[in-house]
């Protein structure tokens, strides 16, 4: 069979696809939540709070659940993290709050903080459509560029303080990573958009889609028109494999594959290869590989140049992929893409091994994996060009430089999230956006 023909849509039935892309981790039931909450020790100096980038009072909200007060629990969460619903679903809790849980150290099983957080926030979204009030209008306008987690968190807090916020985003729909870059089974049932509608219910926020910095917008014009500007640009570029290869059908960026799947109204129309190779070791690689398998790919392999401990995907995510039938091969680096008649047919890899510093170096003969689809997941990068050359904020290697409150080198311009240095996590982006909003409010005054 021609290799291109091995990339096809509709490999599984509608019922199979519905099951495969349903909510991967169903919520706690009303009877399960208080039982799980009762496992918390309600530590005074709770290490879980220190491990949470947004500083949620975790023992406080869990105590509220244990005493039958889901509203109080949810408000405690959302005051600290307005995207608490999505963070409950996508945060690597096993290395953040739950990794620090005292129960984990004593018993090897942490309190299920993520599930309890989801229980509370889902309850409030279902029962209270507008939980936060907006202060009287100040007459000041702030521009936010990027409608991802950092931009939305910043916009919400600014609006609560009475400022008018206009959020510009290059894409057709707001949400950033939550809308375009997370596996569909993690944020099922269009949860990203439901959460955004909930955030916008505070009032005072207008989202303008299809407006890209460097094209439709300039930083100079925004600075002239608005009292402050927040940049939540995310990472717009994808790194290449670093090998010379002609363009071949069946080779694409994993982020584009995930975005296309997320936006597809009918997943039966999304084509996937029969034999898929994913190159990379982060959450994008895991999400792409697992979703390819759930679309009906028969053979899916992740190949990473170093070992499992060096993968940026957590061990939980690695286990999840393997549970879904994905193989993970370590210590191998791509040498070349193989093709025939303009379509990819496989990937040739060199074996690697760790040197004294743990870095991958060549080691021994390589191997080849047959593939009719290759997904590149070797990392994303920040593209500074849209900032402009004449008057752009200072950069640290690869990202926008900011101080502890999100200020850039330009007066009145703030930034946060993945476009600044730090861990590329939704919860960290929320913390950045909130911190910058507080600094903007102090700058603008009462």
What do these coordinates show?
The chain is of the alpha/beta class and 446 residues long. It has three domains: 3-19 and 238-380, FAD/NAD(P)-binding domain; 32-127, Alpha-helical ferredoxin (Fumarate Reductase Iron-sulfur Protein, Chain B, domain 2, Orthogonal Bundle); 141-236 and 382-444, 3-Layer(bba) Sandwich (FAD/NAD(P)-binding domain), CATH 3.50.50.60. Helices cover 34% and strands 18% of the residues. The protein is built from 16 helices and 20 strands. The strands form six sheets. Strands 4-3-2-5-20 form a five-stranded parallel β-sheet, with helices on both faces.
Helix content: 25-40%
Number of strands: 20
Percent of sequence in beta strands: 15-25%
CATH architectural type of the largest domain: 3-Layer(bba) Sandwich
Biggest sheet, in brief? 5 strands, parallel
Radius of gyration (Å): 23 Å
Individual helix count: 16
Instruction: State the separation between the terminal residues, measured CA to CA.
Output: 69 Å
- Report the top-level CATH class of the largest domain: Alpha Beta
How does the overall form come out from the CA principal axes? globular
In round numbers, the mean pLDDT is 95
The third-level CATH topology of the largest domain is: FAD/NAD(P)-binding domain
CATH superfamily caption of the largest domain: FAD/NAD(P)-binding domain
Parts with pLDDT < 50 across at least 5 consecutive residues? 1-5
What order do the strands of the largest sheet run in, or round the barrel if closed? 4-3-2-5-20
**Structure classification:** alpha/beta
